[in-house]
Amino acid sequence: MTNRNKTIAFYLGAFIFISELSFGIWMTHWNHFIPGDAISRVANAYYVLFSRNPHLGAIGFVWNPLPSLLMLPIILFSRWVPQLASEGIAGIIVTAFFAAGASFHLFRCFIKHKQQLVFSLFVVLLFAFNPFIFLYGSNGMSEILFIYFLIFCLTALLDWLDPENGTIPMIMMGFSLALAFFTRYESIIFGVGLALSLTLINWFSKRHEEGSGRLYWYQKWEATELIVLLPAIYSGIVWFVLNWSIMGDGFFFLRSNYSNLAQSEGLSKNPTIGPVIGDFSNVLIFVVERSLPFLIPFLAILIIRTLRRQLFKIDFLCLILLIMSIPIMQTMMLYRGASYGWLRFFAYPMPIVFAWLPYELQKLKELARPLYVLGGCITLILLSTSAFAIGLVMNNQRLAPEEYEAIHYKESPTYSADRLAAQIAHDLDTLLKDNPNTSILVDSFNGFRIILTMKQSGRLVITSDLDFEKSLKHPVGEKIDYILVPKPEGVAALNAVNQQYKNFYNNGEDFAQLDKQYGDSWRLYQVVNSK
After folding, report:
1. Half-sphere exposure of 250 (CA within 13 A, CB side)
2. What is the pLDDT of residues 184-229, one digit of tens each?
3. What single DSSP character describes residue 324?
4. Which has the closest alpha carbon to 496: 456, 464, 531?
């Protein structure tokens, strides 16, 4: 890129970062809305630094650790700016940075593939301010990090298709896939699609190379797959070993009480997911309904390929493989009742198409300029149409309950939970202030909002503390004074207190009597004779 284009790219990234950060802070600070999954990732970083037993293992072994790891340097400053933790602003800073990074990288890719400056800016702005991308760049969730790594991986793949670029693009693919694994588990099925794509490209290109015998092809294929996949494979092994050595089960992330599989056990009673489980036709309808708005940009590539008369080519087949990899995984999980089917699970084809577009447009430009102008206009129209359609779907409570909550935040359970958490945190802080030796046990699986909002959270006995399990089983002997427990409905039934003591929320135990109730969601029990 020229110095001028580098400057434009920098200011573009800075503008998007400031826009995302401003919107995210407005939502969480003034409107008291931040998704539970987002604030829980901030909490995981917080426990590492400020719990009773600070240690890196407190980051957790269920969800991929990279988002929380990236928040650690920011959380250090929460001693002076508590809102970084209590309002999840640390997570918003990270997602705003990656949203800006994805846009910056896309812009560079368009310029590298000889697209005009103004056109490149329009396309990147349509990406950055697509309602879905903008929301997830500002809310602290892991999706935008994963999207960044997908874009980086795809652009590296396109660079690899040019033989002049050597092995560097393969190395970039490998590391982006490894980082994607530490962000979201969908990277596994995407990695399978990428491995198949590399196999197909190598196989169909061998006839055009000298010395392209079977042995030569095998060696080239083997080297390519090893370079690209080994970083991700090693990452998976490291994650397995950490789960095994610390939690006692290499698959703790998959089958613990807090895992996605455990949380989805009750989905058969869910009015949206229940009718889908085990019914393949209903699963397909469910997936197509939510995927279509994100697939509209793919029509641009389909039209460009038709204009070029290059529809039935191996690189196009690879693109379809990559686009369909994650939706296929979601289809299987929905059929088995192992997925909540959130709209965000179906969004990944869109960034894949955005990353692939510069390659297609460059090929069209080299073929005929009038066709290129036509293809560019069609692309802008379809990208705009997709953004509009996605906005409509996000405002549909049936299709997009999470996004609908964000739009109608004042009416959402998340807003109510935030306000209730603030009340509970204030009461617990007062209790600890008036009784300096008091000990309160709370499972951070459900209590993360309360913990982050408290000023004296370092005095709580929480899940990551080394003595939590012992304190849970023997609260009197371990001198626990209070136990905070959520109503055992939905995922709250997996709370460690509810798992250890059946019907504790309703009746307590011989050693515990009800001290205070908070709405219809939480109860604080006092442990009697604990001293």
Report:
1. 5
2. 999 999 999 999 999 999 888 765 555 567 787 888 899 999 999 9
3. H
4. 464
Tell me the residue type at 452: L
**How far apart are alpha carbons 333 and 516 in whole angstroms?**
40
Cβ proximity of 391 and 131 under 8 Å:
yes
Angle ∠(412,447,343) on CA atoms, nearest 5: 40
| Neighbour count for residue 369 (Cβ, 10 Å) | 10
Crossing angle, helix 349-367 and helix 117-128, to 10 degrees? 170
Segments of the chain scoring below 50 in pLDDT: 530-531
What is the predicted pLDDT for the residue at 421?
96
User: Sign (positive/negative) of CA torsion 289, 291, 293, 297?
Assistant: negative
> Dihedral (C-alpha) 490, 494, 499, 504: value to the nearest 10 degrees?
-40
Predicted local distance difference test score (pLDDT) of residue 164: 81
- Taking the C-alpha atoms of residue 365 and residue 432, their distance in angstroms, rounded to an integer, is 69
Q: How far apart are CA 455 and CA 452, in angstroms?
A: 8
Cα 22 to Cα 96: distance, rounded to the nearest angstrom: 9
Closest by alpha carbon to 479, among 515, 438, 514? 438
| Distance from chain centroid for Cα 434 | 40
Is 156 within 8 Å of 163 (Cβ atoms)? no
Tell me how long the chain is.
531
User: What span, in angstroms and rounded, lies between the C-alpha atoms of 472 and 69?
Assistant: 28
Burial 380-418 (b: 16+ CB within 10 A, else e): eebbeebbebbbebbeeeebbebbbbbeebeebebbebb
Give residue 274's pLDDT: 93
Contacts 24+ apart (CB under 8 A), 76-84: 76/49, 78/46, 78/50, 82/455, 83/29
- Which pLDDT does position 531 carry in this prediction? 47
Pair 441, 51: CB distance under 8 Å: no
**What residues contact residue 171 under an 8 Å CB cut-off, 6+ apart?**
227
Please tell me what DSSP assigns to residue 209.
S
Distance from the first to the final alpha carbon of the chain = 70
Which sign does the torsion angle of CA 460, 462, 464, 468 carry?
positive
SS (H, E, C) 357-411: HHHHHHHHHHHCHHHHHHHHHHHHHHHHHHHHHHHHHHCCCCCCHHHHHHHCHHH
Amino acid at 229: L
CB atoms within 10 A of CB 171: 15
What CA–CA distance (Å, rounded) separates 91 from 39? 7
What pLDDT shows up at residue 206?
A: 61
